[in-house]
Amino acid sequence: MNEKRSPRSFPLVPIAVGMIVVLGLVAVLLSRGGDDDGSGVEAGSVATGSIRETRPVSVAGAALPPHGEGVDAAVGLPAPEVTGAAFDGDAVAISNDGTPKVLMFLAHWCPHCQKEVPVVAQWIEQKGAPEGVELVSVATATVAERPNYPPSAWLEREGWQPVVLADDEQGSAATAFGLTAFPFFVALDAQGKVVERVSGELTVQQIEDLVARARGVG
Amino acid sequence: MSTDAVTLLLAFLAVLAQATVAAVLVLSVAGRRLPSVARLGGSMRRFLGPQASSLAVLVAVVATSGSLYFSEIAHFTPCRLCWYQRFVMYPLVPILMMVARRRSRVLQRVAMVIPLLGASVSGYHMAVERFPSLESTTCDPTNPCSLIWVERFGYLTIPTMALSAFLLIATLLWVADPAPIDPPSDDPVVALKGTVS
Lengths: 218, 197
Prior knowledge:
Chain A is α/β, with parallel strands linked by helices. In chain A, about 30% of the residues lie in helices and about 20% in strands. Chain A has five helices and eight strands. Chain A is elongated. Chain B has helices at about 5-30, 35-75, 80-100, 105-130, 160-175, 190-195. At the A-B interface, helix 1 and helix 2 of A face helix 1 and helix 2 of B.
């Protein structure tokens, strides 16, 4: 330093450091009683009763290629069959049972999924579940440290009616269907073959079109 | 110290940073028209000026420590835009130390550009958090920039805290005084300019 300092210069830096320490103590006091790590329950652990945010799944059949831009190589391929369970442990299966299906893969922390879920929930509430097509949602990419955890509470808050399959911690169901982005939709026809895969937020009209294509009328 | 406590502390500091930046801005703008405010602005410059660049170092150190805490201890994975802000904030620590040591007006002005660059990235990141479709209509399954890890007081997310730090550093560099401290002037215009050479 080549300049003179005022002899009466106020010791701002030490005071600022002291203020940070005091604010730190206030923050510790105010945060007492909350979660130690601020993240809530760990993925897969018991949240309430027998609710688990991730469940083991088993996949039969060949996985679909990853979804990408352009022509979808998965269209016309038989979809893999997935068996697992809902958050409460009830068995859920995505199988070739002769019913067309629309699958919705959701991540609790994804803002686009958080926007899409109320749209679909309201659509079902107003028009009822689509006839002849089964809607199955898959809660995947569940991570306790990420926002809006746990997914079971989120979907309950949103009044979510479709069946939910809780994917495992590795996201095996999502990988089997070639998920590359959220939200992710897969339409399957009555023969269990892929009709269409699409990712991103959909409008009600686009969802209805997807349901119609699963039925084979789109 | 829990993640909750650390985020609350950083939120308190971000609010303080915002208040300081707003106060300096108001005093500087209003001081151009009102002599009484100009005198107050002059006093503020004399108060902050001599140690402003050292305070800027402290702000950069706290912001860097907070960023490292979030990624290394709280395990909040940094996204692409977080990394851009890190690329700006981390080198600011040694750069600002040099500025505080040399106390050269030219260095201060050049260094001011760096936090302003960081602030523009933080501003864009905040916009992406509020309007995720700005980046994409889908979420990257690994780590999208629209993911809000922390939100305090209804608006303070990690990029908002970073923006507050960048703006405070730029403001401190703006008021930092490289010259010896002169006795207070009775002329309000001179007082507003403070010790700017």
